[in-house]
C-alpha cells in the first residue's frame, strides 16, 4: 500500500486551467460513451445530456454535484482513451486537471448524502482511480458509495420515491455489485518442492471485487440486498445495459455456486463435492444460452475483437476454475510427495460435502507425473480401491483436469484484454497471474528430452510470464511477479 500514490496530496496543489473548448470536450464525451458507458451505464443518455447542457449553459462555473459529474465525465473520457499502462506521477495522468476540479467540488458535498448524483460522482471517482491503477484510493470511494447504498436500503429510501429515482438507484446498486463484486476464491496454500528448499506460498487471489483482488479489503454488506433490488431497466436502447444485465446475472450464478463450494474470506474451508462443478456447468450453460446477440461469444480460443465479449468469456472460465480448483490441491500435494519418493498413505479420502482432502492423507495409488508435466492416473500400489473410491478419484481427477485445461484457455482469452489498459484490465491481470501460478505449480519442469506436451506447456508458460512482465511497472504487481518469476526460473523456464 505504501507504493500506491496519494492522489489527494496532488489534488490540493495548484492546477492549470482545464481545456474547455467545445471540440476537445466533445472528444472526451465520445470517449466516455465508448469506453465507459458501454461497460457500465451508470446513467442513461438523457441524464448525461442534461448535466452536460446545464454545465455548458452556465459556463462551467457553478459548483455542485451536477457539474462534478460533468468534470468526471471529462476525467474518465480522457484516461480511457489513453494507452499508458501505468503512470507514477498523478500529474501525468490524462484528465487529472478535470479530476482535481471534480474532487474539490465533491469534498464540499455531504458524505451521507441521499442525492443520487453525489453517489454517481463517488463511483466515477473510483472508476478513474481504477483506470489509473490506484487501488487503495479507488476502494475508499467505491466503498463509501456502497455503504451509502446499504443505508438507502436499510432506511427504505426508495419506497416513496419516483420511478425515475428508483431506476437510477438500481443502476447504481448493480453498478457497484456486478462489475466490481466478483468471485472470492479464497486462499490457495500450496507447498512446492524446489530442490532442497520448500516454498510455502499462500497465493491469495481475491476476486470478490476489483479492489479486494489486490487489497483483500472487507465488504460493505451490499450483497445482502441483491435479492430485493430488481435489475435496472431503460427507456433507451443502451448498449451498455446488455453488458450490465449479463454480468449481473452471471454474478448470481457465482454467489449460489461458490457458497456451495464453501469459500470464506478468512478461513477458506472448501467442499470437495463433485456435484458442485457439474451444477455450475449446468447453470453456466443456461446463462450462456440466454446471452443477447450483441454479447454472445464463441467458446473457442479465437480472437473476438470485442473486449466486452472477451471479458465475459474470461469470467465464464474464471468461475469454472474457482469451482474445480479444490480438486487440484490434493494432486499437487501428491506430486510434491512423489517427486521426493516419500512414503504415501494408503487411501484417497472419499470426496463429499464434509470431507477436506487437502487436510487428509493422499492415496498410495496417487497419480504420477509424466514428463509433460501433466498428471495421469498411474496405479503404484497393490491396494485395491473400493467402487466408491474409484468413482470419487476419477471424478476428482476429471475436475482437476478441467481446472488446468480451463486455466490454459483463460490465458489465451485474456491476452485480447491485456493488450491495452481498459476498465477491466486491472481485474483480469490478477486473474491471469493466479491462473498462471496454478499451471506453474502443476508444471514438473522443463524436460529437453520431451518434444511433445512438455514443450507446448513450456512455451505457454513462458508466453504468460512474458505478458505478466509488462505489468511490473504497477506497484501492486511487483512483489507477486518477483515470486512467480523465481519459481519459474527454478523450474527451468526462460522468458525475456
UniProtKB/TrEMBL annotation:
Residues 1-20, 338-384 are annotated as: Disordered. Residues 352-383 have a biased composition (Polar residues). CDD domains: fungal_TF_MHR (cd12148). It comes from the Eukaryota. InterPro entries: EcdB-like_regulator. This is Transcription factor domain-containing protein. The lineage of its organism: Eukaryota, Fungi, Dikarya, Ascomycota, Pezizomycotina.
